[in-house]
Amino acid sequence: MSPDIIAGLLFALAPAALLANLAGVALGIVFGALPGLTATMGLALLIPLTFGIPPVIAFSALLGVYVGAVYAGSITAILVGTPGTAAAAAALLEGPALTKKGEAKKALTMTTVASVLGGIFSCAILILVSPQLAKVALSFGPPEYFALAVFGLSIVAGVSGKSLLKGIIAGLIGLFIATIGMDPIIGTNRFTFGNPNLLNGINVVPALVGLFAISEVLTRIEGKSEQLKSKVSTSSIGLKASELKKNWFNIIRSSAIGTFIGIIPATGSGVASFVAYNEAKRASKDKEQFGKGNIDGIAATESANSAVTGGALVPLLTLGIPGDVITAVMLGALMIQGLTPGPMLFTTNGDVVYGIFAALILANIFTLFLGLGATKIFPKLLRIPEGILMPVIVVLCVLGSYSIANSMFDVLIMLSFGLLGYIMLKADLPLAPLLLSMILAPIAETNFRRAMLLSEQDLTIFLTRPVSLVILSVTFIVIGKIGFNEYKKFRNERTI
Amino acid sequence: MLFKKKVLLSLCLSLVLAVLAGCNNGAKNESASNGGVDYPKRPITLVIPYAAGGSADIQARLVGESLQKQLGQAVNVVAMPGGAGATGMNSVKGSKADGYTIIMTAVGPSTLTPNANNVGYDVTKDFYPIAQVSEAPYGLAVNSDSKIETLEELLEFAKKNPGKATYGTTGAGLHQHVVMSDFLNKIEGTNMEHIPFGGGAEAVSALLGNHVTASANTISEITPHEESGSLNILAVTTDERLADLPDVPTFKELGYDLIGQGAWFGFMAPKDTPEEIVNILDESIKNALEDDTVKKQFENAGLPIKYLNSEDFTEKVKEENEKNAKVIQSLK
Hints:
Chain A: Residues 18-436 form the DUF112 domain. The structure holds two protein chains of two kinds. By secondary structure, chain A is mainly α. Chain A has helices spanning 3-13, 15-33, 39-50, 55-80, 95-100, 104-139, 142-154, 164-178, 204-221, 241-246, 248-263, 269-283, 295-319, 325-336, 345-348, 350-377, 386-405, 408-426, 432-454, 461-464, 466-495; strands at 181-182, 189-190. Chain A has one domain (3-495). Chain A is 72% helix and 1% strand. A two-stranded antiparallel sheet of chain A has the order 1-2. The mean pLDDT of chain A is 87. By secondary structure, chain B is an alpha/beta fold. Chain B has a domain at 35-136 and 263-331: 3-Layer(aba) Sandwich (D-Maltodextrin-Binding Protein, domain 2). In chain B, strands 1, 2, 3, 4, 5, 6, 7, 8, 9 and 10 form a ten-stranded mixed beta sheet that branches. The N and C termini of chain B lie far apart (74 Å). At the A-B interface, helix 3, helix 6, helix 14 and helix 19 of A face helix 2, helix 3, strand 6, helix 8 and helix 9 of B.
């Protein structure tokens, strides 16, 4: 072992670093679980405290928050249908249904185990092959991003529920919402109606919180949603070893998807878990079980979203390029420490880099222990009478969406989306496609137009570049197959 | 049993109160008394028109911490991102002009956003510049695979390959774009297509991946890649060559006048804030930027300190606001 690795391990295993890591994970779990409070806010809160302390201790705390928050976003999604972060939205596809079946504990245990496995998988990739993978990240130019986003949009079909048409309608509403704000290429204002708060578009987090949490609360008020209370007694069903064993390949595949999407800057963990879910569903023998509380779906979404953590650190550490807001905040923290992330970091500060790697693995291990402890406590939330729990959720949603930008405007956005979500539920429109297209449409649009500028308005740019050609062909086949299946279904219905 | 609980609860509460009171006493209560005003008497809110955790946040916290020590009152940094900076600017514009709500803003929210959109404020009419804190210069870089080594070679390439030559920036209508498009507009026969990205990191990775010909970025974003040999920096926007890049010429020495030298950050207050208060703040910011720890931290973060006092900063804001407005109009 090189002296750098040993020095790094010693940094990360020092008592202060371990304590910082553990406290970071605990704080991260709180930030992740509360709707509207995000991992970024947790990090921003910690950064001023890290100015004076050694880099590996500082990073133990920061990585702890990151890993903890990404993991915990799904806890509230599963228990009360309120995702804590955008990355956790995919947990809604199976989580609440499992809770309604009385299997909350099982779902949370799977979340914990799959998250930790995904996180450790991505650490391994980060440690072993990050310089090579960084090159892959760079090969993604505008045409490739466009192709990837279009592929992502094809997932709408997989998360539409019963009716593909209704899924597409919801997706189109999302596409429309994503056009609000300044045009990304020439800066023209679109649908802002002269309101400067809309210049940067609709903020995804308050929209997401409103869409899922407020609409759920409104539905509960009607008393039509299934009562959770009576099922709590059976919520002690744990995860069976056989269920974990059955999912080993699913978890590896999802972790690989998560790591890969993490590596490509500017895509994000929300996308990763949807892609992983869709792949798990596609590979599964009984597709009918998906959407009705299937533990395999949870294994896929949770391992994928946690695997993004290690992936996102690849371009950050090797190129100094942050892939998302969270890693951008970390870049600032690294620089304050006098470390310049990028090609030279491994040679000039090898010990710190290995310290960071070790801290990331430790953060995952702490998540396992704290998480397994939490799965015993969190389901008790469901024992709180709805009359108390629902108002508390609303208060948290208001606080959370206010605190993102210290702006009442975001609270209004949150409430409006709550109403929109409620209306959509009434009309039997699925919510997931709307969110998915809100996340993907800006990536697709901007990169399509960038590609057009690069190629002097020549559409063949998407076909002459191999990566983009492959992704687009796969998308084309997938969409073709979906169309064919729909046609078959339509014909069967008519003959009956 | 119930009684015990109550005792415990009240004990806990009093403990919390005691700790809170202790924190309050911790901040020394010696208000500066120059200019005959008793300021500050209570905590100051320092707004940033950017998200928490970014470089604006870091600068606000570093300077804020020093202000807190000097003025004996807490300085609370409040992040108000959104609206291309307009949300934070409008919030401070609408606050009481008493020095208790100030903003650490930047070139974009103050001179670009209000010129490109109708956002309800004009930086020269609604704000009182207190002091400039930093200015991060830009560099124009190309991928070293391109074999382009000087600015002239790049311009030559652009002339010979109209439509093929492209340059990336941090985003449409942002400062790098405004400065670069003004620069290119003045050169005849050069047509470089602008490709806006979502922030500096995306622009750099597009350049590293050879997806664009050139890119205008903050120096700290590109120097690590110049050191590793993957990028060539052709020119920098400062008047003088940079100490870290002694071999890279400035645009000025190559004979080009730019309308901006970099991404500046500075403090502003609502327009009618009393001059005495602005002076106290200006003086304290100056002291903060001369502090060795603050200097070191700015240097580490890749943020070059460039202090300007209230008068000079006001002049600069006015000048750049006019120039930028013209370029933005021509972009439309």
